[in-house]
Design goal:
alpha/beta, 5-stranded parallel sheet, 47 helices, globular
C-alpha cells in the first residue's frame, strides 16, 4: 500500500514533465536524428533533445501517419549513453540496421543518469522516461516495445508500474496511455530476481560492475540495500505485465573487468583473478524469470555486446530482430480479450476499485493532429536560456510591476525593448517559471481553471511561424491537448462526421470559431494566460499577395532606434492587425496576455492604456552580471572589472546583444587598448554606422567581398542552406581555371569523408572570419559532432543581423564590394545542391528501402531546391549549354545513386525473386518516380524531363527536345510530356513538407503555359490521345469547384496567388488544346454531391467548360473565345 501511495504521489511530477517539455535550465536543443521519413513530421516528430545526452532522441522513423507502425524505445544501462551503448565499430544498429529489417518503425533512444531515488529504485529516471515518451507520442496510439540493457531494464519496469497506476486510478491519463500501448519488453542482461544465495540487491550490484564506468562504493551499497524495494518492483511488474510480451536475454560470455578491492567488498560472490581482474556476467538465474508471456533466450556475447552489433550478418543481430519481431507481433484473440480491461482502465491488480474511466476518442486525436504543425516550438527552442539569475528581477515586486499584473485584472502587459535587448530570453524564462505560475494561481486565476500557452513569432521561419493561423493552431493545441474534454466544446460540428471533413479544418474562420466557442461555453471557469513573443515579427501571410512589390520593399527612414531596421507597408499593416487582435481577445476575466515587441509607434499607440515594462530600463544590472561572468571566464585578472562592467552596461542602453558582441570584440585586446577600443564602439547595432557596420569595416577587403557573397547566398536560399551546400555554392558553379562545371570536375575527383569534412570545416571557419560571426552553423540531426552532417543549417545569429545585411546601402559603403549578380547566385546555389547530392551518399544512404523504396526526404529536399533555383534562372541564364549540362549531371547523379542503392541492398531473408526479378525491374525505373511521400503514392515519372516540366523549366525542356534528331522520337517524347502540362497529379503530399514549411510539391500546380507551345511545336497533339483532354477538364474542377477542400485552403492562405495562377494556366491549357484539335464533344463522367449523396453524370466537354467558367468574370473573354472555337455562340453570364 505504501508503494501505491508513493507511485500516485509521483504521478503529478511526471505529468508536469510531459506537458512542459522545455526549461531554460535544462540546456535543451531541437534535434532530429536518422530521420528517414517525414510521414509523421507534421504532427509528432519534433523532439526536444538535451545536449547532456539525457531524454529522447529519434534515431530512425519510417512510420506512416496515425497509429500505424510501432515505436521501439531503447533504454541504456547504468553509465551508458543514448547512442554509444548501441554502437560498435561506428555502427549504431538501431539507427543503421533495424529500420531496414523492420518496416513502419520509429526508433527512439532514451538517455538517463543519476542514482537511486528515495524509495530505493530508479524512480526519478522512470518519471522522466514516462514523461518524455508520453510527450513524444502525443497524437498517436501506435504500439510500443521497450528494449532495456542492464539496469536500464529496471527503469523501464518502474516506468510501466507508474503508468499502470496512473491508468488504474484515472490520474494523468496522458501518462497512463503509455501502459496500454506497450505490447512488448526486451530485457538484455537485466537482473529481475535473486540467484541462488545471492539476493536481488547483490545481483544488481554485480551488474553495476559491468557498466562502462566503474560505480562508486556508495552506489553499490545502495543497490545491495535496496533489495526489498526492487523485489516489490518486480512483484508489481508481474501483475501489470500479464499481457505484455516479455523477452529476457542472457549473456553466455563473461566480461573481463578491473575493479579495486574497495569496490569488491560491496559485491558478494565475486572472485578476483590475476592482476585485479575479474570475469563477470549477470547471474544466469537472475536475468530471466518465470511468468505468463515471458520468453527466455541466451546470446553468445558478453554483457556489453548484448546491445551492439556492427554487421547485419551477426547471429546476435539476427536474434535481436527476431526478438523484436516476436515482442511486436499482434496479440492472439485470447490475449486481446485479456488486454481489453487494461485498455478500458478496469484492471485492479492490487484488489482496489477503479477510480475513473479513461477518455478515449479517435476523433479527438484527429483534431489534435490537424492543429499540430512541425515547427510549433522551433523558435522557442533556438532561444538561449537566461544567463544565471539575470531575469529573476521580473518577479520581484520592488523591481518590476509584473507581480502586480499577475494579481490584477489588467488584460495585457506589454514588455517593450530595443532590438537585441533580450525580450525573447526573458519571455522564455518567465513562461516556464513555476514561481510565476503559482503567483497567477494565487491571484488572477484563483477562482478559475488556468491554462497557459505561449507562441514565439518568427519572421525568419516559415509562413505558419509568423501568421495568425500559426498562433491560433498553437494556442488551441496547447489548451486542448491538456484538456481533451474541451475539444468537442471548441469544434462540435466536426464530431460524428467523416474525417477528413468536407471543409478545411484549419481555415482561419474555423479556428476563430473554435477559439471563441471555448470562451462562450467556459467563461465562468476558463482562465487563459497567453504569452506572445515578437509581435513585430508577425505578418499577414494570407494577404501578402494583395500588396504591390513597392509595398513589400523595406525602407529606412532613420539610422538609429528600432525604426532603423526598416519598415514596409505590409509589415506596418501586420503590426496594426496583431495589436488589434490581442486587444480584442484580451478579457480581464477570462484571458490575459503578456506580449513583447520592439518599441514601434504602432504598438505605442495600441497599448497605451495597458501596463508596460521597458526592458532597457531594467536590464543594466543583468547586463553587468553577464559581462562580469564573461570577463571572469575569458579575461581573468583584468583590473577594475567592476567599473568596466558598469560602463559596458550603460553604453549598451539595455541591449544584451550589443553587450555580447562588444565583449567579443574587446576581450582579445591588450589591457592598454581594451578601454579605448570599447570607447570607440558605436552604441547601437544597426544602420550604416552601427556596431554591425564596424564589425565588417574591421575586415580586410577580401574578407568583405567574401562576406557579401556568403550573406547574399544565404539570403537567396530557399531555406537556410546546410553547411555543405553553402560550401559548394560559395565556390561558384564554374572552375575559374578550366571554365568547366565544378560538378563535372567532381566526377574525376570524387569526394570522401575527409575532403567533405575539410570543406565544411573551412566554411565554418569562414563564417566566423569573413562574416564576423553574424552567421552560425546550427547543430543538425546527428549524434556526432561532424560538421559534414547534412542537417547543419547556416542561419543568422539574430533577426537584426538578417535585417541589416538586406540593406543595399551597407554594401555600397564597403570598398571592393560590388552588387551581387542574382542569376549567378542562383546558379551557384543550384550547383551547390547538385554537388551536395553527389556527396550525400558518403555521409548517409540517399535511398531508403523500408517501408518502400524511396529517396530520403532530406536528399529529395536538396533535389527540389536545385529545381527551384533552376526555375528562377531558366529564362535568363546566359550560358544555356552549361545550365543544361548541370541539370543533366544532376539527373545522372541521382540515377547512379538510385541504382547503387538497389545493388547494395541485401534482403534480410533469402529472396531469389529480388535478384532475378525485382532488382532488374527497379534498376530500369527512373529515380524521379520515387519521391518520398507523407501521404498517397508518389507521382509516376518516366524520366527527368517529366519532373523538369512540372518544375517549369521551359528553356531546359526546349533544349532537350531540340537535341532529339529523329522527328518521330521527338514527337513521341513531347506526347509523353503533354499530360504533365495539362493535368498535374495532385495525389498525395511529399514528405519534405515537414522538413520545410515553405515546401510545395511539384505535382500540385499547373506548369507554365509556354510549355504547351514547346510540346506542340515538337509534334504533340491532343488528337493522338483522347485521355489528355479528359484529364485536363477534370483538373479544372480541382481549381474551380467552390466546395473543394483544395480551393478553400488556397483561398484562405498565402497560396491564393498560386490558385489564381493555376486557374489562368488551366484556362490557357484548355484553350490551347482546343486550338490544336481537342474534341469539344468528348464525353466525360463527372461525380457530384457528397459522399452520402453522390451521383455520376456524363457531360460533353463543351458543357463542362461552360459550367466551370460561367460566372467567373475574369475569364469571360476566354470563355467567349473558346465557345467560338467549339462552334457555339459566344455569350457569357458574368455572375451567378
Amino acid at each position: 500500500m505504501n508503494r501505491i501511495k508513493e507511485t500516485l504521489a509521483r504521478l503529478a511530477r511526471a505529468a508536469r514533465g510531459s506537458r512542459e517539455p522545455s526549461s531554460p535550465a535544462n540546456s535543451l536543443r531541437l534535434d532530429r536524428v536518422g530521420r528517414t521519413s517525414s510521414s509523421t513530421l507534421d504532427s509528432r516528430e519534433k523532439v526536444l533533445v538535451r545536449a547532456d545526452g539525457r531524454g529522447p532522441l529519434i534515431l530512425f522513423d519510417s512510420t506512416p501517419n496515425g497509429d500505424e507502425g510501432i515505436d521501439i524505445v531503447f533504454v541504456h544501462g547504468l553509465f551508458g549513453s543514448r547512442s554509444g551503448t548501441w554502437t560498435k565499430g561506428g555502427v549504431c544498429y538501431p539507427r543503421d540496421f533495424l529500420g531496414q529489417d523492420i518496416p513502419n518503425v520509429r526508433i527512439i533512444a532514451w538517455g538517463w543518469a543519476g542514482v537511486l531515488g528515495g524509495n530505493g529504485t530508479f524512480s526519478e529516471q522512470a518519471e522522466n522516461l514516462l514523461a518524455d515518451i508520453a510527450r513524444i507520442r502525443s497524437g498517436t496510439n501506435r504500439p510500443i516495445v521497450f528494449v532495456g540493457h542492464g539496469l536500464g531494464g529496471l527503469v523501464i519496469k518502474e516506468a510501466l508500474n507508474t503508468a499502470a497506476m496512473s491508468r488504474i486510478y484515472g490520474a494523468h491519463v496522458e501518462l497512463g496511455n503509455v501502459y496500454p500501448r506497450t505490447i512488448g519488453c526486451i530485457f538484455l542482461g537485466t537482473p529481475h530476481v535473486r540467484s541462488g544465495k545471492r539476493s536481488l540487491g547483490e545481483c544488481l550490484a554485480a551488474t553495476a560492475l559491468l557498466s562502462p564506468a566503474a560505480p562508486s562504493s556508495q552506489l553499490l551499497r545502495s543497490l545491495r540495500e535496496s533489495d526489498k524495494a526492487f523485489e516489490n518492483q518486480h512483484a508489481t511488474f508481474l501483475m501489470i505485465s500479464r499481457d505484455i510480451r516479455v523477452v529476457c536475454v542472457r549473456e553466455k560470455l563473461p566480461a573481463t573487468i578491473q575493479a579495486s578491492a574497495e569496490l569488491l567488498r560491496d559485491v558478494n560472490g565475486v572472485e578476483v583473478g590475476k592482476g585485479g581482474t575479474i570475469q563477470m556476467m549477470v547471474p544466469r538465474d537472475s536475468a530471466a524469470y518465470e511468468g505468463f508471456n515471458v520468453a527466455r533466450h541466451d546470446m553468445i556475447a558478453s554483457h556489453q555486446d548484448l546491445a551492439r552489433f556492427k554487421s547485419r550478418d551477426e547471429p546476435g543481430y539476427l536474434q535481436m530482430v527476431s526478438y523484436i519481431t516476436k515482442a511486436s507481433s499482434g496479440p492472439t484473440p485470447a490475449e486481446a480479450e485479456a488486454r481489453e480491461p487494461r485498455n478500458q482502465g478496469d484492471i485492479t491488480p492490487l484488489g482496489l476499485s477503479k477510480c475513473a474511466p479513461v477518455f478515449a476518442d479517435n476523433q479527438n486525436l484527429e483534431i489534435l493532429n490537424a492543429l499540430y504543425y512541425d515547427t510549433m516550438t522551433e523558435r522557442e527552442s533556438r532561444i538561449d536560456p537566461a544567463y544565471g539569475q539575470t531575469c529573476d528581477w521580473l518577479l520581484s515586486p520592488s523591481q518590476s510591476p509584473f507581480p502586480k499584473f499577475l494579481k490584477s485584472k489588467d488584460p495585457v502587459l506589454w514588455i517593450s525593448g530595443n532590438a537585441g535587448s533580450g525580450k525573447s530570453t526573458l519571455m522564455k524564462h518567465i513562461y516556464h517559471s513555476e514561481k510565476m505560475k503559482q503567483q497567477v494561481l494565487d491571484g488572477w486565476a484563483s477562482e478559475g481553471d488556468l491554462h497557459m500557452a505561449c507562441f514565439f513569432m518568427f519572421e525568419g521561419g516559415n509562413r505558419i511561424q509568423k501568421s495568425y493561423e500559426g498562433f491560433l493552431r498553437s494556442v488551441m493545441y496547447q489548451i486542448l491537448s491538456a484538456r481533451r474534454d474541451l475539444i468537442k466544446v471548441a469544434f462540435p460540428s466536426f464530431f460524428d462526421g467523416p474525417w477528413p471533413p468536407p471543409v478545411l479544418f484549419t481555415s482561419i474562420n474555423n479556428l476563430n470559431q473554435g477559439f471563441y466557442s471555448l470562451f462562450a461555453h467556459m467563461s465562468e471557469t476558463l482562465r487563459l494566460f497567453v504569452f506572445i513573443d515578437g509581435l513585430d515579427e508577425y505578418r499577414i501571410m494570407e494577404r501578402k499577395d494583395h500588396y504591390e512589390p513597392k509595398q513589400l520593399d523595406i525602407t529606412y527612414e532613420r539610422d538609429t532606434g528600432d525604426e532603423s531596421w526598416g519598415q514596409s507597408k505590409w509589415a506596418t499593416d501586420s503590426h496594426i492587425e496583431i495589436a488589434k487582435l490581442v486587444s480584442s481577445m484580451a478579457n480581464k476575466d477570462t484571458a490575459k496576455f503578456v506580449v513583447t515587441s520592439r518599441e514601434l509607434p504602432v504598438f505605442e499607440e495600441a497599448f497605451t492604456d495597458f501596463p508596460r515594462i521597458r526592458l532597457q530600463e531594467h536590464t543594466e544590472r543583468s547586463i553587468a552580471q553577464y559581462v562580469a561572468g564573461r570577463l571572469e571566464d575569458e579575461a581573468p585578472g583584468l583590473p577594475d572589472t567592476k567599473n568596466l562592467c558598469k560602463e559596458v552596461a550603460q553604453k549598451s542602453h539595455g541591449d544584451i546583444l550589443w553587450a555580447r558582441l562588444a565583449i567579443d570584440m574587446v576581450v582579445g585586446c591588450s589591457l592598454r587598448t581594451l578601454r579605448s577600443t570599447l570607447d570607440s564602439l558605436p552604441t547601437h547595432l544597426g544602420g550604416p554606422d552601427g556596431l554591425y557596420m564596424r564589425m565588417l569595416e574591421n575586415l580586410d577587403t577580401d574578407h568583405q567581398r567574401s562576406a557579401s557573397r556568403i550573406f547574399h547566398l544565404v539570403l537567396k536560399a530557399q531555406q537556410p542552406p546546410s553547411l555543405v551546400t553553402l560550401a559548394f555554392a560559395e565556390e561558384g558553379y564554374l572552375s575559374p581555371t578550366t571554365n568547366e562545371l565544378r560538378i563535372t570536375y567532381d566526377n574525376t575527383h570524387p569526394f570522401d569523408i575527409a575532403s567533405v569534412q575539410r570543406l565544411s570545416d573551412r566554411t565554418q571557419s569562414r563564417l566566423y572570419v569573413c562574416c564576423a560571426g553574424l552567421l552560425v552553423a546550427e547543430t543538425g540531426p546527428s549524434t556526432s559532432n561532424s560538421s559534414t552532417e547534412t542537417g547543419q543549417r547556416v542561419v543568422f545569429v539574430h533577426q537584426t543581423a538578417k535585417e541589416w545585411v538586406r540593406r543595399k546601402d551597407i554594401w555600397q559603403r564597403l570598398p571592393g564590394c560590388s552588387p551581387e549578380n542574382g542569376v549567378e547566385l542562383d546558379f551557384s546555389l543550384l550547383s551547390g545542391c547538385a554537388r551536395h547530392i553527389k556527396a550525400f551518399e558518403i555521409l548517409r544512404p540517399p535511398v531508403l528501402a523500408w517501408p518502400n523504396w524511396r529517396f530520403r526526404p532530406d536528399a529529395w529536399l536538396l533535389i527540389a531546391n536545385a529545381l527551384r533555383y533552376a526555375e528562377r534562372i531558366d529564362g535568363v541564364v546566359p550560358d544555356v549549354a552549361k545550365y543544361c549540362e548541370l541539370l543533366d549531371e544532376l539527373d545522372a547523379t541521382c540515377q547512379r545513386a538510385w541504382v547503387a542503392a538497389l545493388q547494395k541492398h541485401k534482403p534480410l531473408h533469402e529472396d531469389p525473386d529480388w535478384y532475378e526479378v525485382r532488382l532488374p525491374s527497379y534498376c530500369k525505373k527512373h529515380w524521379a518516380s520515387f519521391e518520398p511521400m507523407d501521404a498517397g503514392k508518389p507521382p509516376k515519372r518516366k524520366d527527368f524531363l517529366s519532373l523538369a516540366v512540372q518544375a517549369n523549366l521551359v528553356r531546359y525542356t526546349t533544349t532537350k527536345l531540340n537535341q532529339i534528331d529523329n522527328k518521330e522520337d521527338r514527337k513521341k517524347k513531347a506526347q509523353e510530356l503533354l499530360p504533365y502540362v495539362v493535368s498535374p497529379k495532385a495525389e498525395g503530399f511529399s514528405a519534405c513538407a515537414g522538413l520545410s514549411g515553405d515546401y510545395w510539391d511539384f505535382h500540385h500546380d499547373m506548369p507554365d503555359s509556354r510549355l504547351l507551345d514547346v510540346l506542340f511545336a515538337a509534334g504533340a497533339s491532343p488528337r493522338d490521345d483522347d485521355k489528355v483532354f479528359t484529364k485536363a477538364l477534370k483538373t479544372g474542377r480541382h481549381y474551380f469547384s467552390r466546395g473543394s477542400v483544395t480551393m478553400t485552403h488556397l483561398l484562405e492562405t498565402s497560396s491564393s496567388t498560386r490558385l489564381m495562377e493555376n486557374r489562368e494556366r488551366w484556362v490557357a491549357a484548355v484553350k490551347s488544346l482546343l486550338q490544336h484539335g481537342a474534341d469539344p464533344q468528348t464525353e466525360i463522367q463527372v461525380t457530384t454531391g457528397t459522399s452520402e449523396n453522390q451521383s455520376t453524370a456524363t457531360v460533353a466537354a463543351v458543357d463542362l467548360i461552360r459550367e466551370t467558367l460561367e460566372g467567373e468574370p475574369e475569364y469571360a473573354v476566354e470563355l467567349v473565345e473558346m465557345e467560338i472555337i467549339m462552334g457555339r455562340r459566344g455569350s457569357v453570364g458574368i455572375a451567378r
